[in-house]
Every structure is written in structure tokens, then in C-alpha cells.
Design goal:
heterodimer, A: Mth169, Chain: A, six-stranded antiparallel β-sheet, 4 helices, 33% helix, B: nine-stranded mixed β-sheet
């Protein structure tokens, strides 16, 4: 039985997020979501699988490397990934080879000495705030993902549970 | 003969592209994205130049592809007018669904996206050796028959061009079944990256971004819409060539990129 643990780092900007603002603007002005959509926020998600070590301590070390505390905040979740109420979280990740995730894994393992790192996955979580009720919001989130957030030839998406 | 060089927020090659358009004898002007889209119908052809429209937010080209001007451009494409997308322009055309496109794909409302220009991943001997933004001079081999495509109309098959690239997302990928075969069978692959002798070597540094089958440029099914990652406007004059190229010492000679703009002009003349 595998003893591997997964360290999830949810990272978001403390300063205004221009990319999230552009996505919100495009959804409202160009794609017709003006009545349904209230706000858009964005997080980066790193999921780092380790085969040994204290995950909380490792998470602090990884955060020092992957999070810029001058402009970003983060939280750590070990072996779970949950989100707050009030928005629909849409996780977007590459389904083709993710060169950046591979580079992060190699940097942690080879250059920073974290031999216990088994795998690194990277994603963006779009937090979509709606004015509508939950079933309609989930449907709108899917439509937003497919019409704007992903290019299906390289990205996949998942509506995350809360 | 009047060409619109489209300008989005973040476009950064519009002025040199307009110089290239005018140097081959076409008229033209820079067309801002927020002008009335209906004005596009007054032009004979279009160039979407390189740059970083909307700072490449979300992914390169996607925000610009949602602008009303792109719906109007689809209508112009449906009339058979030539459109050349260079670098970011290629990315915008892909996200709009104009490339690889089809005869029906030029209809307004058809927005199928059949491929992506993903992040560069440079592979050599099975290993990733670099990734991300990269700029260099590359060699291109013209793959399509002459007259197949507006932007290479006057270029013979097999011709080699040395032109620079500068991008972070030029790695052509697709999950559309049969698309690569169709592109090859129907002559829609216009340029491939190659070595200086024209050999296709599908790994870095010859394939500079990991693009499927070393593809650097494609056209739509009718041939009027061309998308290319390399920048022909940056190799328009011989003096723009790199120092190690002997043609740089003959500054009065045309640069290899000039042939793309001459092709566009010839295409319009023949199809007028």
C-alpha cells in the first residue's frame, strides 16, 4: 500500500489580479454573462506528491520556493482539496505534457534536494461567483469553461466540489 | 489595393508590418480593434501582426478572438479575402476557429477550435531541454504548392526561407481525429521548420517549439487564410538579417520575408 501523501498549495494574489479582471470583463462584455456573473477570482494550485517526511514541514519549505509572499498568499491542504462556499471552483490543467510542472519537480528534487518529491502537478483554479442558484451556476460554469477558460486540445477542466 | 493591419491592445509589430505592406506596393493602414467592425469590408486584405494581445492573459490570442472585429473578419474571410496572421495573429486565428478552418468554417457563427498553439516544449533526444519563450532565426521549408495559399502564393514548393521567431506558445497540438492527415493531404501545411539544407528534423534546435510534425504555418481549406509563427516583417530587408548571413552585406537586396507580402499582393491581383 502506498504511503505517499499529497501536499496541495492553493496560491492567490494579494494584489489586484489583472488576468482575472480581463477574464471577467470578457465574460460580461463579450460572452453575455453580465446578468449571471458577479465576480471572477483565480488561484494557482500546486499538488506535490511526496513519499516521506513531515508534510506540514515540507509544505512550508515548498511554499518558500513557489510562493512570493510579497504579493501572494497561500493555504496548505494535506491529502485533501476543498474550497469555500459562495463560488464555483473550476480547475483547469494541461492534459498534454506540462513542461512547467516537470521543471518544478526537477528543481525541487535535483537542485533543492527534496528527494522525497515523487510528482508535481500544476493547475489554475477559477473561482466563479454567480448571482444565480447553484444548479444554474454549475451549468454556467461549464459553459464558461468550454467557451473561454480552456482550449480542449491542450486543457481539461473539472468543476471541484466544496 | 488596401490592407488593414489589425491592432489589439498589446500588439507590437503593426508598424513594421505596415511598412512591409507598403513596400511591396499595397496601400494600407493600422486598424484599431475598437473601430466599427463593419469598416473592415472596405479593405482587400488583412494582416494580424505579432505581439502580445491582452498581455497573453489566459492564453495567447484567446481574449482578442472574442472581440467583435474578429466576427467581422470571419465574414471577410468567407468572401475569399486574404488574411495573414503572424505569431500572435496566428494564435488569434486559431482561437477564433478561422484556422485550420474549412470552406464552411468561414461562415459567421462557426467557431470550432480544432487545434491549439500550446506552450513551447523543446525536446532533444527524448528529453525536455528548454521550455517557454524563445527567439532565434529559423529555417523554413515551403511545403505547399505555389498558388495554394495567399501568403505563399508566389513561393515555389521546396523554397527555403530564413526568418526569425519570437514566441512562447507556438507548439501546434490537436486532438481532432484525422486533422493532421487532412492538413497534409490537402496542402494546408505551408511551412515547416527545417535545417539549413531543408531537412526536417523533428527535434530542438530545428523544431524550435515542439510543434507537431515541425509545422510552422498552416492555411485554411480555401487557402486565403494563413497563420505563421515566424515573423516575415522582421526579415523583409536584407539589412535585417543576422550578422552571420552574407546577404546582410548587400543591404539593397530584398530579405526573404518580403516574399510573403509579395505573395499576398499577387494573390489579390489574381483573384480580383
Amino acid at each position: 500500500m502506498s504511503m505517499n501523501q499529497k501536499i496541495n498549495l492553493r496560491v492567490w494574489l494579494k494584489i489586484p489580479d489583472a488576468e482575472a479582471a480581463t477574464v471577467k470583463n470578457t465574460l460580461i462584455r463579450r460572452l453575455g454573462f453580465g446578468n449571471a456573473l458577479a465576480d471572477v477570482k483565480k488561484e494557482r494550485l500546486f499538488s506535490i506528491e511526496v513519499d516521506s517526511g513531515d508534510p506540514q514541514e515540507l509544505a512550508r519549505s515548498f511554499a518558500r520556493e513557489l510562493v512570493n509572499e510579497n504579493k501572494e498568499s497561500h493555504i496548505v491542504l494535506i491529502d485533501e482539496l476543498k474550497f469555500e462556499e459562495g463560488y464555483v471552483p473550476v480547475k483547469v490543467a494541461l492534459h498534454i505534457e506540462d513542461g512547467e510542472a516537470i521543471s518544478i519537480r526537477e528543481r525541487l528534487r535535483s537542485r533543492l534536494g527534496f528527494d522525497n518529491v515523487v510528482d508535481v502537478k500544476k493547475a489554475t483554479v477559477w473561482k466563479l461567483y454567480f448571482n444565480t442558484l447553484k444548479p444554474e451556476a454549475q451549468m454556467a460554469a461549464r459553459e464558461i469553461a468550454e467557451r473561454l477558460l480552456i482550449n480542449p486540445h491542450k486543457d481539461s477542466y473539472e468543476i471541484m466540489s466544496q | 489595393m488596401k490592407i488593414a493591419v489589425l491592432q489589439f491592445p498589446g500588439t507590437n509589430c503593426e508598424f513594421e508590418t505596415l511598412v512591409a505592406v507598403k513596400e511591396v506596393g499595397m496601400g494600407g493602414e493600422i486598424f484599431r480593434w475598437n473601430r466599427s467592425a463593419g469598416e473592415l469590408s472596405g479593405f482587400d486584405g488583412f494582416v494580424i501582426p505579432g505581439g502580445f494581445s491582452y498581455q497573453d492573459r489566459l492564453r495567447a490570442g484567446v481574449i482578442a478572438s472574442k472581440e467583435p472585429v474578429m466576427s467581422a473578419l470571419k465574414e471577410e474571410a468567407g468572401k475569399g479575402k486574404p488574411i495573414i496572421g503572424i505569431c500572435n495573429g496566428f494564435q488569434i486565428l486559431v482561437e477564433t476557429g478561422l484556422l485550420p478552418g474549412s470552406a464552411n468554417g468561414c461562415d459567421k457563427g462557426s467557431g470550432n477550435v480544432d487545434m491549439a498553439l500550446a506552450q513551447n516544449v523543446m525536446v532533444s533526444q527524448g528529453k525536455i531541454v528548454r521550455r517557454g519563450y524563445y527567439c532565434d532565426w529559423v529555417n523554413l521549408r515551403h511545403e505547399a504548392p505555389s498558388k495554394r495559399c495567399s501568403g505563399s502564393f508566389a513561393i515555389e514548393r521546396g523554397a527555403l526561407l530564413k526568418i526569425p521567431i519570437a514566441h512562447g506558445e507556438g507548439n501546434l497540438v490537436t486532438t481532432t481525429p484525422g486533422l493532421m492527415k487532412k492538413l497534409n493531404d490537402e496542402g494546408q501545411v505551408v511551412f515547416r521548420y527545417c535545417d539549413r539544407n531543408g531537412r526536417i528534423i523533428n527535434e530542438f534546435p530545428f523544431n524550435v517549439n515542439g510543434s507537431t510534425e515541425s509545422i510552422a504555418a498552416i492555411c485554411n481549406e480555401p487557402g486565403n487564410v494563413l497563420g505563421m509563427m515566424p515573423h516575415p516583417e522582421r526579415a523583409f530587408f536584407a539589412w535585417q538579417l543576422p550578422a552571420f548571413d552574407p546577404r546582410k552585406q548587400r543591404p539593397d537586396e530584398p530579405g526573404p520575408g518580403r516574399r510573403v507580402f509579395e505573395s499576398m499582393k499577387r494573390y489579390i491581383e489574381v483573384n480580383a
